């Protein structure tokens, strides 16, 4: 007992010494200032005004004349200043700016009414050529446009070096630049314009819309705090922003929910089909092994097993859908169910066959001696015993089948994986959508694995 207490005291002392050393090292390196940012230094109204105007003048792209003209028309007055605990400063400002969204809404037909081809070469114009043609008209409209007034809270952050930067959120940019981001979205979504009373379709003219939007393009308008916060706070804020953008915004999480429903439906139906095929194939092969009958069917089953187990499931899916079923007009969902069901049937058949063949031959002889026929003996005596032995393996096959269905998106089935890829295509974020898909699959597999372990434990109890 004394020896154990001595070891315990030594362990506690070691932990305390390590904690003191690590704390001292953090203090020496100033790491606490990175993890827990202090309050920002106080600003006067004049200093805050200069920082905001300088930051706003840096937002327009240098080659975007309309956004430069917009920035020159912005008037900001600082009214109140509040200080946060993360080196942030919240500045309440009144502003006067150009009503840019109205400029675009009222003049979009005239701005986009340009020649689509270069007359000297006859080739389609590039976005840069459209920009050079549209920009003078847009600058003239900005210079004579009406103004709007309002109030907006602007957030500044002080870096560890003491420099202040503006956090250019969408709300701030839209307010101070006259809803420039909404104007950009309007241009991007415009598919038809009116030209002298005639409706012109520009749905395919991406270069035209890009050229128009480039006239008032901004930079860094969606960056979060520009890396000024400490790394822990910055990571948390970035994570929250990514989470909102990938899942909450526009209810994008519904892509995952609908995809999950499709994945589970494919898995369940394919499992049923696989069980049916597996038991039929196993019955044929076992009958041939025990009685020597059904030789031709046994040979066909061996070919089926060789093909299904010897080729990748993705290749099988592509062949079944594009080569066999697509010309017949079979839906993608049904094609996926058939492919995964047929593939799973090959593995189920071997599991079932192994279970049946593991039953002692004396069980079959006992059934026959009682006057039962071969089919009755298999159905009432052999298969019930075999089913109990193979049930955990069948459950594991269900887990494997669930994961294999993740390739169904290759033929356009809106499963869980495609739901994640859809979100990725909208947000251009690789990490969050794919991580969500992986986590959902992991949760499903862990849950099913737990149920399988409970089943195996129950079967062991019944055996005792």
What does this structure look like?
With 464 residues, this protein is an alpha+beta fold. The protein folds into two domains: 45-229, no CATH class; 253-463, MetI-like fold (Orthogonal Bundle), CATH 1.10.3720. 67% of the residues lie in helices and 9% in strands. The chain is built from 18 helices and six strands. It has helices at 2-29, 31-35, 45-57, 65-73, 100-112, 127-143, 170-176, 180-189, 206-214, 231-248, 253-291, 295-310, 313-325, 332-358, 361-369, 374-404, 416-427, 431-463; strands at 75-83, 88-98, 147-158, 164-166, 192-195, 198-201. It has a four-stranded antiparallel β-sheet with strand order 1-2-3-4. Strand 3 (147-158) and strand 4 (164-166) form a beta hairpin. Helix 5 (100-112) runs parallel beside helix 8 (180-189), helix 11 (253-291) runs antiparallel to helix 12 (295-310) and helix 15 (361-369) runs antiparallel to helix 16. Mean pLDDT is 83; it is low at 25-36 and 222-232.
Brief account:
The protein is α+β, with helices and mostly antiparallel strands. It has helices at 2-29, 31-35, 45-57, 65-73, 100-112, 127-143, 170-176, 180-189, 206-214, 231-248, 253-291, 295-310, 313-325, 332-358, 361-369, 374-404, 416-427, 431-463; strands at residues 75-83, 88-98, 147-158, 164-166, 192-195, 198-201.
């Amino acid at each position: 007992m004394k020896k154990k207490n001595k070891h315990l005291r030594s362990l506690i002392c070691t932990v305390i010494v390590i904690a003191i050393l690590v704390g001292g090292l953090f203090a020496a390196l100033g790491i606490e200032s990175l993890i827990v940012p202090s309050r920002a230094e106080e600003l006067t109204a004049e200093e805050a005004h200069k920082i905001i105007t300088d930051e706003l003048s840096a937002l327009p792209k240098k080659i975007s004349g309309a956004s430069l003209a917009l920035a020159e028309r912005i008037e900001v007055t600082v009214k109140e200043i509040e200080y946060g605990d993360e080196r942030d400063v919240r500045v309440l400002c009144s502003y006067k700016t150009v009503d840019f969204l109205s400029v675009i809404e009222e003049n979009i037909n005239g701005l986009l009414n340009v020649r689509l081809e270069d007359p000297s070469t006859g080739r389609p114009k590039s976005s840069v050529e459209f920009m050079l043609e549209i920009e003078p008209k847009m600058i003239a409209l900005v210079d004579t446009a009406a103004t709007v007034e309002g109030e907006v809270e602007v957030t500044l952050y002080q870096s560890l070096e003491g420099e202040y930067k503006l956090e250019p959120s969408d709300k701030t940019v839209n307010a101070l630049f006259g809803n420039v981001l909404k104007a950009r979205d309007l241009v991007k979504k415009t598919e038809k314009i009116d030209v002298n009373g005639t409706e012109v379709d520009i749905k395919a003219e991406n270069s035209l819309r890009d050229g128009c939007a480039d006239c008032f393009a901004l930079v860094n308008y969606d960056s979060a705090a520009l890396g000024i916060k400490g790394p822990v706070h910055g990571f948390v804020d970035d994570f929250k922003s990514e989470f909102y953008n990938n899942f909450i915004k526009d209810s994008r999480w519904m892509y995952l929910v609908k995809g999950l429903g499709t994945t589970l439906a494919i898995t369940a139906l394919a499992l049923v089909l696989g069980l049916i095929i597996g038991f039929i194939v196993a019955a044929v092969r076992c009958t041939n092994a025990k009685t020597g009958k059904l030789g031709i069917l046994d040979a066909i089953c061996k070919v089926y097993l060789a093909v299904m187990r010897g080729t990748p499931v993705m290749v099988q899916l592509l062949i079944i859908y594009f080569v066999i079923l697509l010309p017949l007009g079979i839906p993608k969902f049904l094609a996926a169910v058939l492919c995964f069901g047929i593939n799973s049937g090959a593995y189920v058949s071997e599991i079932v066959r192994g279970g049946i063949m593991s039953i002692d031959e004396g069980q079959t002889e006992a059934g026959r001696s009682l006057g039962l026929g071969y089919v009755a003996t298999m159905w009432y005596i052999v298969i019930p015993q075999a089913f109990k032995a193979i049930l955990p393996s069948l459950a594991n096959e269900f887990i494997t089948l669930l994961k294999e269905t993740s390739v169904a998106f290759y033929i356009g089935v809106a499963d869980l994986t495609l739901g994640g890829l859809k979100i990725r295509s909208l947000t251009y974020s690789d990490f969050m959508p794919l991580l969500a898909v992986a986590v959902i699959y992991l949760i499903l597999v862990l849950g099913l694995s737990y149920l399988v372990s409970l089943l195996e434990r129950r079967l062991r109890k019944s055996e005792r």
